[in-house]
């Protein structure tokens, strides 16, 4: 596959010169048209593999330009760094310089992450990178060690989840400038917080996508819900692969982003001998060596296939971690009782037990929802390679009314869900506002201008919701009110005491030696189920804990084989609960009661382990 990687887009220098490089292999002529002097286009020279270049003098930041293809089409730069007038306007030059002060920052390991997913536009009232900076103190006090930004690439209109981006190299113009994003990363590192960026390499948005005018970036060989798939393995695929690899390296190198979360990698099709994910991983590893910082690649997909995170030497792609939806599905179904849509595959506590043990719930058995056998056991992987959650943008925003768990569950069940996540062996991810029980919904929102596209989008949402049997009118994602409703209220007492409880839970997870073991062979032991109670042991670093979860609506009696000491109970009055029923010290084979919807942690004395 590729051995020489070519930088694309504008490359300005301090002396006022700028080299423009664009890939257009099937064009016969390409010119740079400066908006300030459109009557004087600059012819570009065609080089190997269809890359066109030209160096122009007296180019300053903010100058706008187009590419003219074959003396006809005038289009923005596919690798534009800035689209000040939106997806249909000219591209603009950005000064790449920045005074960094984070030279002591070394990156982050997956096992160290307490992730916090946020949407830049909805996280604060300003909807900007500067707004995020103003909340970094809140996140650091909470115990967050990494924020994950939903996609920030330029999309059409004012508001969007980000998955309709069409300029992967350009920051959405209403979030801030390139300098603002660098300031956010720099500030986050000063607070000890890593920055993960969600990127979309499986498709482009339906509006403002001019890539096909330049080259065969897409293929009809594979079909996606969003349209044609990205051409990673057909004619002219080398330039496509280079385009996305250069994009990833730009974020990780120039912007010092600590890792990328790659959206829906199951929709990235590649039959090449060297899969694009493996090729990307190899280039990121080279970057790590050069900059001496850890750079993470996180896959998001629902195929229950460990290949993406398995070592290259074992036939994998070598990525660092993946999202694990099935932990969420199993816990959500168990604690809410929902059984429609994909939740029909989940419900019994045995499913949650499987996820705690195997990360995946389905490892080859028959799936009722998929109507086929599904999944594979994730052998040779660690728990620190799986990112779990009780809420995220998909699981909230793809509900009919965007309702959060705080509007579905009471405070005791909310605390139990949070404890189940934090005490699990997986890397935890919180969704913005979850820590204090945000009540505002997080709805699906867009701002397209194509009326036909808008109707197709709404019809698709209606079909999607039909399988869940949810009642009510599907909100119109185009309405400004829908976006405004989705912004955090920052009423941090929405659920009294919940924020304080989350802080305690996160600190407890960090401080407990038994919770720092992520080895699959011994971190989780002795999982047992009794009625609505699931209990298991966490072992590591010569320490051991018993985690006991009651996911039912009634008090239950339980007994352990080992003596142990209670460390905390979510139903304790200290956490605004009704009061713990469990004794401070538990004797072997002595029954005791635990409250409904509660989570308890007991410490097994070291001598028992010896």
Can you give me a brief rundown of this structure?
This protein is α/β, with parallel strands linked by helices and 610 residues long.
Key terms for this structure?
610 residues, alpha/beta, Immunoglobulin-like, TIM Barrel, 3 domains, 8-stranded parallel barrel, 6-stranded antiparallel β-sheet, 14 helices
Characterization of the model:
The chain starts with 8 loop residues before the first strand and ends with a helix. It has 610 residues and is an alpha/beta fold. It has 3 domains: 9-92, Immunoglobulins (Immunoglobulin-like, Sandwich), CATH 2.60.40.10; 114-509, TIM Barrel, CATH 3.20.20; 523-609, Immunoglobulin-like (Sandwich). The strands form 8 sheets. The chain has an 8-stranded parallel barrel.
Count every helix, treating DSSP H or I runs of 4 or more residues as helices: 14
Q: Helices and strands: which structural class?
A: alpha/beta
Distance between the termini: 54 Å
CATH class of the largest domain: Alpha Beta
What is the CATH fold-level name of the largest domain?
TIM Barrel
Overall pLDDT: 95
For the biggest sheet, the summary is: 8 strands, parallel, barrel
Ranges where pLDDT stays below 50 over 5 or more residues in a row are none
Number of strands: 31
**β-sheet strand percentage:** 15-25%
CATH superfamily of the largest domain: Glycosidases
Strand order of the largest sheet: 10-11-14-17-18-19-22-23
- Report the CATH architecture of the largest domain: Alpha-Beta Barrel
Helix content: 10-25%
Binding site for substrate: 261-266, 325-329, 393-398
Pathway: Glycan biosynthesis; trehalose biosynthesis
Active site: 263, 300
Family: Belongs to the glycosyl hydrolase 13 family.
